[in-house]
Amino acid sequence: MRCATIILPPVLKAVVLLVVLILSLLFSAGCSRTRVTEDFFQSYRVRSGTVLEIYNPNGQVTVTGSDHDEVEIAALKETYHGQSALDEVDIFIDIGEIMIIETVHSADGKDVTVSYDIKVPEGVEVSVVECSNGNIDLQGISGSPVLSTSNGNISVSAVGGVVSARSSNGDLDIKSVEGLGYLRTSNGDIIADLPDIREDLDIRTSNGSISLSINPELAFYLEASTSNGEISFSNLDLEISIQEQTLLSGIMNGGGPKLNITTSNGSIDLAQLQQ
Predict the structure, then answer these.
(1) Phi, psi of 150, rounded to the nearest 5 degrees
(2) What pLDDT tens digit does each residue of the chain (275 aa) get?
(3) Which of 13, 84, 117, 139 lies at a 20 to 30 A Cα distance from 193?
(4) For the stretch 163-184, what's the b/e string if a residue is b when 16 or more beta carbons lie within 10 angstroms of its beta carbon?
(5) How many angstroms separate the CA atoms of 69 and 90, rounded?
(6) C-alpha–C-alpha distance, residues 15 and 1, integer Å
(7) Is 248 exposed, middle or buried (0-12, 13-18, 19+ CB in 10 A)?
């Protein structure tokens, strides 16, 4: 049996050769890139009551509670642009009543990622964590942290304070905290516990669902709305004033601060917090 011979027109043949050449160049460039890393580790003894602020423009930040008596800072700098790029990025640490951990990028150090794993002793209050590109993860710490990232998820658990969190592109998962300040993301889901509410609270996402577990003893005015999705609630003693598929408003336990829950594209689910 003879195999058929395919003859390509000259123009199509030239296009195929060009595509093959481009793919070869891209593959070669990718294979030639070398990952360069640099480890950083320091530990510092600080006074009880020290406030901690963390600023990291490019990379993730993990902060966990520790039974040690020092703040331990482990970081990994990495890049695909050579050692010279790593040398353009410094980790700045200032210790006083406020302890500041900051990644400082020069003009040539923008292609460097720095990932932090920070352990804090009891008595250190985490106040601010800011990232531009990276996840934020807090576990077992004290303080009322204000958390923000442009591109990344925020996860919080076992925090002895009021948590405020904002992401432009990422999910928010806030569990086992004393209270919430605000929760906002543009593209992502929000899952959170609400054990206490002392002032007006705004929880919103543009594209994502919201699941909120509420202490049944709280008193507040509720307004929840979605443009595309459904709203449901269970095991909550709500005095309903408006209940539609995309809108729910009412009063819980006589009213108090306003709880505003909003999403443009997603469902809203309200349930009783299991304590």
Answers:
(1) -85, -40
(2) 444 444 545 555 455 455 555 555 444 444 447 999 999 999 999 999 999 999 999 999 999 999 999 999 999 999 998 898 899 999 999 998 899 999 998 865 568 999 999 999 999 999 999 998 899 999 999 999 999 999 999 999 999 999 999 998 999 999 999 999 999 999 999 999 999 999 999 999 999 999 999 999 999 999 999 999 999 999 999 999 999 999 999 999 999 999 999 999 999 999 999 87
(3) 117
(4) bbbbbbebbbbbeebebbbbbb
(5) 25
(6) 31
(7) buried
Look at residues 206, 199, 195, 212 and name the one whose alpha carbon lies nearest to residue 271: 212
* Domain ranges for the chain: 201-275
Of 228, 201, 200, 218, give the one whose Cα is nearest residue 275: 218
**In angstroms, rounded to a whole number, what is the distance separating the alpha carbons of residues 174 and 163?**
8
The answer to whether residues 197 and 257 touch, using CB atoms and an 8 Å cutoff, is yes
What's the whole-model pTM score? 0.86
